[in-house]
Amino acid sequence: MSFHHLLVSHLDALPLSLVALVALSSIFLLFRARPKKPSHVPSPWRLPLIGNLHQLGSLPHRSLRSLSQKHGPVMLLWFGRVPTVVVSSAAAAQEVMKTHDLAFASRPDSSLSDRLFYGSQDVGFCKYGELWRQVRRVCVLHLLSLRRVHSFRPIREEEVALLVGRIRAASSRVNISEMIVSLTSDIISRVAFGRKHVEEEGGGSGVRALFSELTTVLGSFPLRDFVPLLGWIDRLNGLDARVRKTAIKFDAFIETILEEHERKTHTNHARDDSSTMDFSDILLASEAVDGIALSRDCIKAIILDMITGGIDTTYTTIEWAMAELVKHPRKMERAQEEIRKIVGSGGELREEMVEGMEYLRAAIKETLRLHPALPLLVPRESMEDARLQGYLIPKCTRVVINAWAIGRDPVSWEKPEEFWPERFVGNSIDFKGQDFQLIPFGAGRRGCPGVAFAMATTELALANLLYHFDWQLPDGMAGEEMDMSEASGIAVHKKSSLILVAKPPNL
Description:
It contains 20 helices and nine strands. By secondary structure, it is of the alpha+beta class. The chain folds into two domains: 3-32; 53-503, CATH 1.10.630.10. The protein has a four-stranded mixed β-sheet, covered by helices on one side. It has a three-stranded antiparallel β-sheet with strand order 3-9-8. It has a two-stranded antiparallel ribbon with strand order 5-6.
């Protein structure tokens, strides 16, 4: 018997007055719970119940740009019952993240982040308030400060040297995507936990698979957050079980790490805030360091933040940069000439040398413009009524900034669809939150605090790959033939692995 026939048969068995009462109550509750609509914001037509969800597609950043080209850089969509303002221009993004930064500084409710990040007690998904201020203070001052990032330089250099060695030992054909994932996960493991934990979770590959599962689950779309009546679908399609399993596995993994650190600290007595401390050491000592007593769950949530922010986004940027440079061999040659001139023949590429590599840094900026790791920045939520480009945005409205569309906006960029690093040579445009046409890490209060950490790894890894090897596509493939399609997820990487041929350079 179909669901429709089953429902009808049950209704037939009820008194007509009771059916009417249930129907009227449902309608009343539906309208009573309906959020206040932003005033006169352009909006496409929507379907009942699901709103504009059917228009998102498998790559929402592309679908939203297409809609914004019809309805404007500030448009209103309904994701189920949730009003969502989508921003697709630098000017509107500046209003959200600078002019009215405080008004838009909170985060919307998320069942995913609540279940994975211990009630959203991390810096990324935590709602604006005292807890978020304390967590961000610990992250900015003690985990991701420039001094702390510099202290992890030996780890980055050692792991990048191991990467170069693995490529030399491999056959000429290299799965560079797989090797970059290994590099970034090994670095974050050592920085967060003090070692790679190769003996746990099935070895190093098991730990990397666990990290990958976390970012994959974070890219899921729980219907219950937008259409509560359809929340049962999350159970039916296995999402609830998958989230629960991931949360349990990570909790057990991180708890084991923290207990290990506590035993080590107890044995060695109290450790000071020295350069030898990893993230777990610092968080466990946070009360002594900064007078802030973080709960056990809050510490675990922050560590998960460091994993998601430190692995997937960094790996994605390096992968896209290599893909674009191989696709444009003359630009790759220019970057290699610059790097090899600075380092010299047979020299050692040290991290401080990257500061003088203007074209390499321009190529990375261009990669971030075309391929921001998070094309849709983590959503914000208005804490009060505010004006955006003249439109009234009520309190509790969700705001999504399409960094991918802004990076390709012809209003801001010449040749917006072309990989052209030269646009960044000789100018001061940067990605640190002051130039709103380039915001891969966000800006304002909710900007990513880990920019320096991510870029230190990205620059060093890319410089070494280009210095130590000449790269080309296998089987004589031309750059135009390369598959540059995107995979869906919270961080958008290449859909197909980047397979390249590595050859020793003629230095």
